[in-house]
Amino acid sequence: MQQTIQNWNAPSVSPIWFEESKFEGENFNSEDYVDDLKRYIPLETLRSKLLEYAEEMRGKLVVLVNEDYDEFAALSTKLVNVDAAISGLEEPILAAKSEIESVRHGLMSHSTALKETLQRRHNVAELKASLELANAAAQSLSNVQKLVQSLEEDTTTAKARAGLLSHEALCKSLDRICSEMGRLLYLLQDSKHMQIIRNMEGQVASIKCIVENKLENALVQVLKEQDPTSLATLLHAYSTIGSSTTAEGIIRDCVIAPCCASSLDVQSSNTPSDSLERIQRSLKQEVWQFLEVAISTSSSSLPYDFPGQAVFPEVVRAVESRHPTMYSPGNPKDFQQTYRSMEAFIGDLESLCLTASQVARFRCSQSFQSNKARWNFAAYFSLCFQDIASTYESKLPSCRDAFDSCEKENSVWSTCIKDCIASMEECLSDATFILPVADKLVRLQLQIVSRFATWVERIIEYASAEEHALPASAPKCMALLCGSICATPMASIIAQQVRSKLGNFKAADLVEEAFKESEANLRVYADGLLDVSSTHIAARCAEFLGQIRGIVAAFRMTARVPTAAAQYSTMILKPLEQFKSEMVSSSEENTEKFCIQVIDKVSRRFSEVAKETLETAHKTEESLKKLKSRKNLPTAAEDSTSLSTDQLVEMQLSLDIKEFVQRACSLLMISPQRPEEIFAKVPEVQRLYDITQKGGSASMQ
Predict the structure, then answer these.
(1) pLDDT at 268 > cutoff 70
(2) Going along 437-553, which residue ranges are E strands?
(3) Which residue, 457, 581, 444, 467, is CA-closest to 531?
(4) Distance CA 223, CA 167 (A)
(5) Is the pTM of this model over 0.70?
(6) Phi-psi region of 580 (alpha: psi -120 to 50; beta: other; left: phi over 0)
(7) In degrees rounded to 5, what are phi and psi of residue 552?
(8) For 590, which of 205, 241, 523, 674 is 20 to 30 Å away at the CA?
(9) What DSSP string runs through 591-644?
């Protein structure tokens, strides 16, 4: 052992891979530990290290055991007279335990006796309550029998006197009987477990049947005479005995059904909406006030639902029996009219309700939910989509047909934007719109705008293609269409219609934003139309620029200094002037924008031709100078009184460009004395003006 202790005290150094703390972990597993280390440590090395560590742990254990061994061995010598001390404590403890046990047994016996007494009292109370309940039920049954017998005697006495018991007295007697009957039914419901009560069930059922028969006869008579006071009394009586459904059925059979039958028998109805409107008018004329009284009577705590249990199901049954296909969307017009008539009728029924709970009860009724589920709105929208979309599609001609119709009056160019607006308005028109498909109809409106934008895009592509020969009036038609698109506030028109149909609903702003975005996209295509039409007009204007090349040949034959603009310069913008005079119906903004685009394109082409002409004249003049110098002939540079051909050409072009700028100013309503304004609007004009301005001025000096 001493050797072991010495070995343990000897210092030992553990390798880095040997972590002693892992053995103290709660989740330590020897197999996982060995599998992890054997990948890079030889098993023999690992085994020797573990044996060494185990020996070290044994040494520590021996040291801990022997550390306080002397004190532990001397402990027993210090304990003297332990048994006497224990016996001195044990006697009082045992005496206290015996006393506690005796008290406990006494309390338990008293507690048991008390529980038995309380249970007997509870049983006696239950028996007493049952007896009292049975006595009350028997007394209530006796009272009901007496009241029924008294009512029969009163009725017999009234008949013997050749008269009838008044409705008001009869209804009050029945109400009193039903109040007592309701008390009896309540007592029976709470005491079904009693044999005496079960023996009374036959008598109760018999007397209830008698009372219900009398109530039914009285209610039928009251409904015929439409006595509101007696009706309120009878409805209270029915609710007291829990037969509100019976009262609703009697009102349906005796009031609503005859009214519906008489309305449909007057004359044949062509459509379900006609039948429904005829029944609605008949109800308002004959029984509407009576229904108001009945519903107002049930507006309190009485469990009646006359709209959902009497009026609505009978009206739907009557119309459906006359028109079995009323829910079929095969004819969208009839389907829409029938649904709108049904919604109007439901609105009238809800207007009779005095409280929100009555409206909620009506909407939760089985007849209302069943009717709501039978409308095939998906098929209806599909048919409307086909009708509206196909009609609009037929109004959009192909690109070739559209340009062929340019010369005709009332061509598609003047009506296409109107057709688009009309098709969009048709989606929410009174002949199409119903609330359940409102979102789909609004989406269809956006699709119509998208289809129109696609058509305009194809028109632009067709007009831009060089292989297509367009009629002379094609630019006018495209500009007219552009003006129509820009002048039509499509988003505000449709958004106003949507709000008029749906009110200020939550998504109204989002819908309006969607239409504004569609309108903005459409106006981008309108700018494309304007650009294409301006390109065609600019091409016509540029045809006159071909005469510039003849200036060089003209000044080779004569050295006359030009003093006026050539005739072609006055004709360059003639096509644009004529086009502007024909576009009087277009807005000033679009007209000015169109003129600026044409002038810009013509100016760009004018600049190209002018530069080419000046360059050609300069090269020709240089060649002539070289030729004359070889032949020792005088040149224009040696003759101070004459100007060279390129100088004359430049002077002529300067005059022509000034004339062009003046006419461009006239088209844009700008004073010729303020050319800087047109330079600001059309920068290409200034670049054209600067081509010859400096050189021309120097030549003239």
Answers:
(1) no
(2) none
(3) 457
(4) 11
(5) no
(6) alpha
(7) -60, -45
(8) 674
(9) HHHHHHHHHHHHHHHHHHHHHHHHHHHHHHHHHHHHHHHHTT---TTT-TTS--
